[in-house]
Specification:
By secondary structure, the chain is of the alpha/beta class. Helix content is 30%, strand content 16%.
Length: 233
């Protein structure tokens, strides 16, 4: 089964079984799912969460309670600007700077409340939380197909803000945990998979991409993302 086939299977299942939650349809996005708050709470019980001071989190709906819990726990959250299109391609949500956590952690609110930052000015990231369409118990992950989550990791690695030891987690519904997923060299594996009922610790250490694989990026993508020009050899 190709990654595209797997995405369609998961999206269809979430919709037909009534597991998907707003926004609808689940297709074409990181899908929201029932009991996503329970998954966020379970993630907050992990040692990786408790020791983290800085997070990079995706902006999608199923991880909204993750972002809110992080700020309420005193952690600084970084979110990427859509498609990394700005000169300062990350937004900082600092709990000491945010007055309205609920508003600031939405997709639209992050652009209003978040402070644009350059990756060179960011601290090291302790924990990455990525949205997923499907995962397997070895830590392989399938996103929605645009590749930006992996590209964000590669950019941060280029600025020495993440490395082999950076914990990468996701929150998903139990039905999104599937059999073996084949990965590409730029795919970032997961250390933690958290569902509303389970916490799965994988054996992905040492499988991190080395950085940006320029041969995998076309000229149009490089031209549209200003920060890549600063990293290009």
């Amino acid at each position: 089964m190709t990654k595209d086939d797997l995405r369609e299977r998961i999206w269809d299942h979430l919709e037909t079984e009534g597991i998907a939650r707003f926004p609808f349809p689940p297709h074409g996005r990181i899908p929201n799912f029932e009991n996503h708050r329970e998954a966020a709470d379970r993630l907050a019980d992990t040692e990786a969460w408790q020791r983290a001071e800085t997070l990079k989190c995706n902006p999608d709906a199923p991880q909204l309670p993750v972002r809110r819990r992080a700020l309420r726990d005193g952690k600084t959250v970084y979110m990427a600007v859509p498609r990394l299109r700005d000169e300062q391609p990350f937004l900082r949500l600092d709990p000491d700077e945010v007055d309205d956590i609920d508003a600031a952690t939405t997709v639209s609110g992050s652009s209003k409340h978040g402070v644009p930052v350059d990756p060179a000015e960011m601290p090291r990231i302790d924990l990455i939380v990525s949205g997923s369409v499907a995962v397997d118990e070895t830590g392989s992950r399938v996103g929605k197909g645009e590749g930006y989550s992996d590209l964000e990791f590669a950019v941060l690695r280029g600025f020495d803000r993440v490395d082999e030891a950076t914990t990468v987690a996701t929150t998903v519904h139990d039905c999104q945990v599937v059999g073996g997923i084949e990965t590409d060299r730029h795919d970032v594996p997961l250390d933690l998979i958290v569902t509303p009922t389970r916490t799965i610790r994988t054996e992905s250490t040492g499988r991190r991409p080395a950085g940006l694989y320029w041969a995998d990026l076309d000229a149009e993508t490089i031209a549209e993302i200003p920060v890549l020009g600063r990293l290009q050899p």
